[in-house]
């Protein structure tokens, strides 16, 4: 797992145009309503630079964020009054119980061992009140196999040029190599590099992990839908209720 995005934190938002944070916040809250759940105290787990956290707060949600990257949280703490805590999700420790937890944008895929996913779900469950909802999404095996694969991409905007290269082992574990080129005042370019891995998990692996953590799986949807994931779905959304 990547513990810190370091330089990536500065460029993260400009490269995440497809995150659709306002729509994602509305969608997550619609899922809560669909299962007759009041959000109560909400944790945005692996909150990154806090964009989704702020969207949730603006909709009246009592929310705080946890992320393992100090650099990401430095970007998040921009005077919005939200509490942010720097913690590895596998070592989550909270001062009070929560009623809802969101973990979005393939954050769990950054855990490259199933045991780490199981420990994270256990930690969330430890601090969640009975009947609470845990809603998370993951990149699907299809995306790792067919979209990420051993492919290369480029992303360019007014802030940075990014060269993105993937190396995939058996369509499951994907090493992601990023090179950022930022234009300087004199017209030259400064290069920054990051690398990390993501792992695809099957529906069975995630269902079993939820069961071990004392969660009841309520539904699995395709991203921004209320239907089961299609065969070519790139992101699957899991909704689980804490037992008890």
Counting DSSP H or I runs of 4 or more residues, the number of helices is 7
Specify Rg, calculated over alpha carbons: 18 Å
Share of helix among residues?
25-40%
- By secondary-structure content and strand pairing, the structural class works out as alpha/beta
What is the H/E string?
Answer: HHEHEHEEHEHEEEEHEE
Number of strands: 11
What can you tell me about this protein's structure?
The structure is a single chain. With 244 residues, the protein is of the alpha/beta class. The chain has helices at 8-11, 21-34, 51-58, 70-76, 114-126, 141-148, 203-212, and strands at 41-45, 62-67, 84-86, 98-103, 128-139, 152-156, 161-169, 173-183, 189-199, 215-222, 235-242. It is globular, with a radius of gyration of 18 Å.
List keywords for this structure.
single chain, 244 residues, alpha/beta, 7-stranded mixed sheet, 4-stranded antiparallel sheet, 34% strand
How would you concisely characterize the structure shown here?
The protein is built from seven helices and eleven strands. It has 244 residues and is of the alpha/beta class.
How does the SSE layout of this entry go?
Layout: H1 8-11, H2 21-34, E1 41-45, H3 51-58, E2 62-67, H4 70-76, E3 84-86, E4 98-103, H5 114-126, E5 128-139, H6 141-148, E6 152-156, E7 161-169, E8 173-183, E9 189-199, H7 203-212, E10 215-222, E11 235-242
Parallel strand pairs: 1-2, 1-4, 2-3, 4-5
Antiparallel strand pairs: 5-11, 6-7, 7-8, 8-9, 10-11
Helix pairs in contact: 2-3, 5-7
């Amino acid at each position: 797992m990547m513990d810190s995005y370091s330089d990536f934190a500065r460029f993260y938002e400009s490269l995440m145009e497809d995150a659709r944070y306002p729509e994602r916040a509305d969608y997550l809250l619609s899922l809560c309503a669909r299962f007759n759940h009041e959000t109560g105290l909400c944790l945005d787990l692996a909150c990154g630079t806090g964009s989704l956290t702020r969207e949730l707060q603006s909709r009246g949600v009592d929310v705080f964020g946890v992320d393992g990257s100090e650099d990401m949280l430095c970007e998040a703490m921009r005077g919005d009054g939200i509490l942010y805590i720097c913690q590895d999700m596998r070592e989550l420790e909270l001062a009070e119980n929560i009623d809802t937890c969101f973990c979005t944008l393939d954050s769990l895929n950054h855990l490259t061992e199933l045991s780490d996913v199981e420990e994270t779900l256990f930690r969330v469950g430890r601090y969640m009140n009975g009947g609470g909802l845990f809603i998370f999404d993951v990149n699907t095996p299809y995306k790792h196999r067919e979209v990420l694969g051993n492919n290369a991409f480029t992303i360019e905007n007014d802030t940075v040029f990014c060269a993105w290269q993937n190396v995939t082992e058996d369509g499951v574990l994907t090493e992601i190599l990023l090179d950022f080129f930022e234009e300087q005042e004199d017209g030259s370019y400064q290069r920054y590099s990051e690398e990390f891995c993501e792992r695809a998990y099957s529906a069975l692996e995630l269902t079993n992990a939820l069961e071990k953590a004392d969660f009841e799986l309520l539904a699995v949807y395709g991203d921004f839908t209320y239907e089961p994931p299609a065969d070519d779905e790139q992101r699957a959304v899991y909704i689980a209720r804490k037992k008890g």
